[in-house]
Write a structure and sequence with these properties.
The protein is α+β, with helices and mostly antiparallel strands. The chain is about 30% helix and about 25% strand. The protein is built from 5 helices and 7 strands, in the order H-E-E-H-H-E-E-H-E-E-E-H. The strands form 2 sheets. Strands 4-3-7-6-5 form a 5-stranded antiparallel beta sheet, with helices on both faces. Strand 6 and strand 7 form a beta hairpin. Helix 3 runs antiparallel to helix 5. The radius of gyration is 18 Å and the shape is elongated.
Length: about 180
């Protein structure tokens, strides 16, 4: 934990303001859910809450099931990072930050095939990039929590992958509800 040197007072409604620079650095936007923890010595900790992370084991099983059935690489993301992965080089993707382009696609709330030949953006801020992929948002109670991304090295994706991604994204969304 690192000290920021910033001190804030709690207002009459029990609120504190998190400085803009800290929010920007940590990618905390309006509406971002935060979980509050208390320490043994009176500390308070704020942590971004992601229900997808809570489904870690289940999302890993979903990835493995899709890979076993379709032989395609699969990623499950929250709104910031890859949570689970299966397929070739799966360890290269775990905890990799997604690009803002992926975040926009997730927020578009539709399952689609995306060709990077049509896009001038990256899928990830690090690691090798994917040229063609299916993305399906994970939605629960009207809120978007992440996505399922399916891709392969042969770049041959179609309706089957769209249906699989959509069905499993819907399944994970029901688990959050």
């Amino acid at each position: 934990m690192k000290a920021t040197g910033v001190v804030r007072r709690i207002d009459e409604l029990g609120r504190i303001v998190i400085p803009k620079e800290i929010r920007r650095t940590l990618r905390i936007k309006e509406g971002t859910p935060l979980e509050i923890y208390s320490g043994d010595s009176g500390e308070l900790y704020l942590k971004k809450y992601s229900p997808i992370v809570e489904l870690g084991e289940l999302s890993a099983e979903v990835c493995e099931s899709i890979f076993a059935t379709t032989n395609n690489n699969v990623l499950v993301t929250n709104m910031e990072t890859v949570i689970s992965a299966s397929g070739t080089k799966k360890n290269n993707y775990i905890n990799i930050m997604i690009d803002s382009h992926i975040e926009r696609l997730i927020n578009a709330r539709k399952t689609q095939i995306v060709s990077m030949a049509d896009e001038n953006t990256r899928v990830f801020t690090e690691a090798e990039n994917i040229k063609l992929y299916v993305i399906s948002p994970i939605i629960a109670n009207g809120d978007v929590y992440g996505s399922i991304i399916i891709f392969n090295e042969a770049n041959n994706l179609g309706e089957t992958e769209i249906r699989v991604a959509s069905a499993f994204a819907e399944y994970l969304g029901r688990q959050i509800s």
